[in-house]
Structure formats: structure tokens, C-alpha cells
Design a protein that fits this description.
Length: 162
């Protein structure tokens, strides 16, 4: 199973979500069975590390995302990943432009896909304070916990293999 988390610039939300999801997967029965990556719909930050505030926030929760580098979402990603999970509806619209109709079946908003109720979008903390990054961490870490539960259920039911 391969999951791709997508936001606008791939320096705040999606690398934080990638880090939280990897950490939760590594601590689960799915360790080594699910690959996670992240990308941005825009190209402004390609090759750059995550925002320093995102790195610090994740590190404060024991997760190192400092080695990640931003990249732009490409059409080929829809062939490489089982799910493309977007931070918000604008990201999803931009991503959908790169996908075929069949590939759009594997495009979703990350929070609802993970089983979250209520909030649909992960707010962009880029212009906010450290508190905004903490709020995003809470959202993506909770979503990661739910995503692992979903994937474990799918593995138990044979939807995904070992």
C-alpha cells in the first residue's frame, strides 16, 4: 500500500501529515507494509525542507521531518500511489486536474478518508503562529491514528495484502 499526502507547497501540512503517519505506522502491525510520501500542488518550494516551524512542531512530538524535501505532485503519482490524500478542497481540485477519471476514484480529502467527523480541511498554518502548527499537528496525528486503524481493518478484511 502506498499513500501520498498532498497540500499546496509541501512544506507545512503534508510533510507534517507524512511524518505523523509514518510514526503511527512504524508503531503498528503495519510497520514496513505501507509507504508514505508527500507532495505539493505548487512548485514554489521544490527541493526545500519543510518550514522550520513544521520541523520544530513535529520534533516536539518526537517525529523528525527535517530530511524531507518538497516536491510537486505529478500525473505519474496517480500510477504510483494507491491513495492521493489532500489537505483541503483546493488541493483536491488541483490534483484532480492531473488524474484520469478512474484515478480520481483514489483521490480523497485526508481527514474524512481517515474516518474523521466534522472538519474536512486541514488549515494551512503557513501565515500563522506556532499555535497554528500545533493545531495542525493535532489534526494530522489524530488522522494518522485513524488511518492506521482503517488500514488495519482493510488488511484484516483482505482489501490490502501483506
Amino acid at each position: 500500500m502506498r499513500l501520498l499526502v498532498v497540500c499546496l507547497g509541501n512544506i507545512c501540512r503534508s510533510p507534517m501529515a507524512e511524518g505523523a503517519l509514518r510514526a503511527r505506522l512504524d508503531a503498528s502491525l503495519l510497520a514496513g507494509q505501507v509507504q508514505v510520501d508527500s507532495a505539493g500542488t505548487g512548485d514554489w518550494h521544490v527541493g526545500e525542507p519543510p518550514d522550520r516551524r513544521a520541523i520544530a512542531c513535529a520534533a516536539g512530538h518526537g517525529v523528525d521531518i527535517g530530511g524531507l524535501r518538497a516536491r510537486q505532485l505529478r500525473a505519474v503519482d496517480f500510477d504510483r500511489f494507491d491513495w492521493v490524500l489532500c489537505a483541503d478542497e483546493a488541493n483536491m481540485r488541483d490534483a484532480a486536474r492531473l488524474a484520469t477519471p478512474a484515478q480520481r476514484e483514489r483521490l480523497a480529502l485526508y481527514l474524512p478518508w481517515s474516518g474523521g467527523k466534522g472538519r474536512v480541511a486541514i488549515p494551512d498554518p503557513y501565515t500563522g503562529s506556532n499555535d497554528h502548527f500545533e493545531q495542525v499537528w493535532t489534526l494530522v496525528d489524530t488522522a494518522a491514528e485513524r488511518a492506521v486503524a482503517r488500514l488495519l481493518h482493510d488488511a484484516d478484511s483482505g482489501i490490502i495484502g501483506p
